[in-house]
Design brief:
Strand 18 and strand 19 form a beta hairpin. It is globular, with a radius of gyration of 21 Å. Strands 12, 13, 14, 15, 16, 17, 18 and 19 form an eight-stranded antiparallel beta sheet that branches. Helices cover 0% and strands 55% of the residues. By secondary structure, it is mostly beta strands.
Length: 231
């Protein structure tokens, strides 16, 4: 099977940049991997993640992550290749429930026991985060502070490979006495060739018997001297 796609030039003027597409797969088709051939004829490996399945369990829509090296028309095929190495691949190691993610000069330590889930971030061997990075606080209208606690369980790995790592975990905002306010979900995504990550923070009102929740604001300390405030 073959699919034809168009890849745009990197807005950051990179020689290798992450690209993502979703492709439909016929019912009952078994796939052993995917590869993408660029306009110059070179094939690159693609990391696959099944998004939905047919009733028989075969993949229906598959999401592919790969590194583009040229703009223009590309061809996707359902055959694996290791012809071209991934530039600054995502490297992930596990130790108990702790994850260590490295891309180039960046290293992130993720720990579900730490409030906010991120224990440490290093750049070129030097820590760049505060003592307690990624501290999220909700302030109520009565000025009560509800801190985001550690994960309610271990990390959920939603995508893992040299091209992309995506993890999520659930937690809650609670006051010093443990009174619950909001349910929250964090999600971190790492991409090959990008010495950084994207962070998603979602909050959910699940308290029974409360039609609404009034809050004064949400304060997020992401690193030493870096703060995001929503009010």
């Amino acid at each position: 099977m073959n699919w034809h796609i168009e890849v745009s030039k990197s807005t950051l003027d990179l020689n290798a940049w992450p690209a993502r597409i979703s492709i439909p797969v016929p019912r009952g088709k078994k796939t052993g991997g995917f590869s993408v051939r660029s306009p110059d004829g070179k094939a690159v490996a693609a990391q696959a993640r099944t998004l939905t399945n047919w009733p028989d369990g075969s993949p229906r829509w598959v999401q592919l992550d790969f590194q583009a090296h040229a703009e223009g028309p590309h061809e996707v095929s359902d055959s694996a290749t290791s012809e071209m190495r991934v530039t600054e691949a995502v490297q992930c190691s596990h130790k108990a429930k702790r994850l260590t993610v490295t891309i180039g000069r960046m290293k992130a330590e993720l720990d579900p026991a730490v409030p906010g889930g991120v224990a440490d971030i290093e750049w070129n061997g030097k820590p760049i985060t505060a003592a307690t990075p990624f501290r999220f606080t909700v302030t109520g209208v009565d000025e009560t502070r509800y801190e985001a606690g550690p994960a309610l369980g271990s990390f959920k790995i939603e995508a893992q490979g040299p091209q992309r790592l995506q993890v999520s975990w659930d937690a809650i905002h609670a006051d010093p006495r443990g009174k619950r306010l909001l349910d929250i979900r964090f999600r971190l995504e790492f991409l090959a060739g990008i010495e950084g990550f994207s962070l998603s923070y979602q909050f959910f009102h699940k308290l029974p018997g409360h039609d609404r929740l009034d809050v004064a604001g949400i304060d997020a300390v992401l690193a030493a001297g870096v703060r995001a405030i929503a009010r």
